Amino acid sequence: MKKTQYLFILLIAFYSCNCEKTNTEISVIPKPLSIEVTNSSFKLNKNTTIVFQNGNEGFETVALYLQDEIKKSHKLELKITRSDNQPSKNTILLLQDLKSEFGKEDYSLVSTKKSVNISSSAPNGAFYGVQTLLQLIDINKVDGKIEFSHIIPGVRIHDSPRFNWRGMHLDVCRHYNDKEFVKKYIDLIAMHKMNTFHWHLTEDQGWRIEIKKYPKLTEIGSVRSETMIEKNWDEFDGVPHGGFFTQEDIKEIVQYASDRFITIVPEIEMPGHSLAALAAYPEYGCTGGPYEVEKTWGVFDDVYCAGNNNTFEFLEDILAEVIELFPGEYIHVGGDECPKEEWKKCPKCQKRIKEEGLKDEFELQSYFIHRIEKFLIANNKKLIGWDEILEGGLAPEASVMSWRGTEGGIKAAKMGHDVVMSPNNECYFDHYQGEPENEPFAIGGHTDLSEVYNYEPIPSELNAEEAKHILGAQANLWTEYISSPEHLEYMVLPRMSALSEVVWTEPQVKNLDDFKSSLQKLVLRFEFKNYNYRPL
């Protein structure tokens, strides 16, 4: 636990009576660590000024974001100014406080009749303070129209996130969603004080990222001829489905996310789930093809050839371009659901097993991931993969994303590796939210709002030292049966809101009834921003 978190937790007992008294008055998700309600409130008007200190460009980004949000909600064009002094009245002040023991994502918010002060050591914390500020402004629906109050209640808030990895995943391969939707999805992540966007960009059913050295990846690999019809696995729609993101698109999206203090983790699948790439470049498969971009869902035997050195050159070339586009520290390499059937029959793969002294094809997969990890480390990146990368031996510095329950995460943490928890029972948002007959067709499973909210990312099997390796958690959204933005939003909301409190709020502060009460206000904000959500 961070020292600042410990200090904030000590404040909870002091402020608890105030929090209990005002649960219905203050609706903020994820719930802040401590809230004290005062008798003084601040009123927004056309003369309110947003002030940030000189020399803090990141704080200017936050100020511009707040200005834009207030313009959308209140039709007010607030002025932004720089100042080294603290103006005395009618201001929203973004204050960089380097004297307090704030972590970079911590903040305090104090609103009085004269001003609203958001203090943080870094612009990240200021941005989360702004998200809280926006939710403090009451919202109601009157005669079918969303209306915002101009009053910001008097409060003293101290807040700090529980986990460093607070993530949402999106698969744009099974069904493509364009640049503008991806930005809208990033806005949702930001609204919930999450900081990681796991972007699944390559798959059997479509390759979605431009790689200049290998243009056929998008010329051929980004389009499938047709798609299987849901519920009728032997029938197809006869309609080509495709789309991809140019490198300029990606740069724009990366900057958009960065302005909201969100890191994008790109996923380039290997060694399995790679038929779209093999359709474009069949020489990197075990049989040499021909292959086609897959039009059905599932797990397929054709994977990258692990015995061919040219395969690794191909993948390293791809990763080199990916690394240039994404400044975050992690590259996700998939590593899941890789059948070994073709490797068992492939002379090159069998030769590799023999020459490297490997026991079997599982160790060959470990060899594959080890080799890719060496390349990433040499390029100052960290490798993360699904928990199957544990099979055959985990790469030395790899991090694990635990999706097949919690076992993989527990094993990796006990080995001293960092872990992101994403178990399918609680964190797969392609599952049904209610009785299937009352819900849109889904891949299966059942994960309702309460199950998400009650999830605890740190397994009880870990001791305190091992628990430090749990970076946080994320939800995954696979899109086999999610073909429209409206359906996608329905599957995410409001379960994302529940997860945001899991990864931000300390367990002793969480309360399901409070959460559901606050959610009544938050869904009105979804409606105002034109998000589709599952009715409460």
Give a summary of the structure in a few sentences.
This protein is of the alpha/beta class.
The coarse overall form would be globular
Largest sheet: 8 strands, parallel, barrel
- DSSP, total strands: 25
Which CATH-level-2 architecture of the largest domain?
Alpha-Beta Barrel
Going by helix content, strand content and strand pairing, the class is alpha/beta
Mean pLDDT: 94
> What is the name of the CATH topology of the largest domain?
TIM Barrel
The parts where pLDDT drops under 50 for at least 5 residues are: 1-24
What does the radius of gyration come to? 24 Å
Main β-sheet, spatial strand arrangement: 12-13-20-21-22-23-24-25
**In percent terms, what proportion of residues is strand?**
15-25%
| Percentage of residues in helical conformation | 25-40%
Q: Name the CATH superfamily assignment of the largest domain.
A: Glycosidases
Determine the number of helices (DSSP H or I, runs of at least 4 residues).
18
Q: Please, how many domains?
A: 2
Under CATH at level 1, the class of the largest domain stands as Alpha Beta
Euclidean distance between termini CA atoms: 34 Å
